[in-house]
Amino acid sequence: MTEEAEDQALSRPQRRLLRRVFNGRTVPVSAAGLLFLTYKEAARYLLSLTPDAREAAYREIKENAER
User: Fold this and answer.
1) What is the pLDDT of residue 5?
2) Are the C-beta atoms of 65 and 29 separated by less than 8 Å?
3) Measured between alpha carbons, how far is 19 from 15 in angstroms, rounded to an integer?
4) What is the CA angle 9-13-17, rounded to 5?
5) CB–CB of 15/26 below 8 Å?
6) Who's near 8: CB < 8 A, 6+ residues apart?
7) What is the overall mean pLDDT for the chain?
8) CB-hemisphere CA count at 13 Å for 34?
9) Other CB atoms within 10 A of residue 22 CB
10) How far apart are CA 2 and CA 20, in angstroms?
11) Which of 24, 29, 49, 63 is exposed most, by the fewest CB atoms within 10 A?
């Protein structure tokens, strides 16, 4: 995997948490004013961001999923 591809990929712990958060979810999780109901929606959004913005959005999803 190239360095650029590594920057674009979600880390394994991030993928695992997102899968747990969105597994069987019926209530959307919000981040940056957007609502996500599936893992694929959230992952697609996170991958469209710069690495710093991605971390912030990931933390927001994680915090909002706990509520």
Assistant:
1) 52
2) yes
3) 6
4) 105
5) no
6) 47
7) 89
8) 13
9) 20
10) 28
11) 24
| 49 three-state secondary structure | coil
Residue type, 58: Y
> Rounded to whole angstroms, what are the CA distances from 20 to 1, 36, 39, 47?
26, 14, 9, 18
Tell which residue, 2, 6, 9, has the closest CA to residue 58.
Answer: 9
* Predicted model pTM: 0.83
Spatial distance between the Cα atoms of 60 and 49, rounded to a whole number of angstroms: 14
Closest C-alpha among 45, 47, 52, 13 to residue 31 = 45
Q: Which of 34, 38, 25, 33 is nearest to 66 (CA)?
A: 25
**49, 59 Cβ separation under 8 angstroms:** no
